[in-house]
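Fold it.
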Amino acid sequence: SEISSMTEGYSGSDLKNLCVMAAYRPIREILDREKKEKELAIAEGRPPPPPVGATGSPVNIRSLNMEDMHYAHEQVCASFSSDSANMIELTQWNELYGEGGSR
């Protein structure tokens, strides 16, 4: 899948951070929209609207989409590169001595 190919080399923790970043994007959109509406109301001399969810009505949060994942991918990178010298050494050691290696 597209997500698996764009996250090659990500650790479990990296994947969690990616998902959290993607999940916060719709929330940030709501907060940004709320801030703009408040600034506009103040500029026009109107009372600012109540914060989202303050009236007890449910907050309509959109579902995540691939655009959210792409945005998160730009923000969260793999914490450990599979091309690093340490990883190459570990891979070579594992090929020699790990499971299935020539012990």
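The mean pLDDT is 87.
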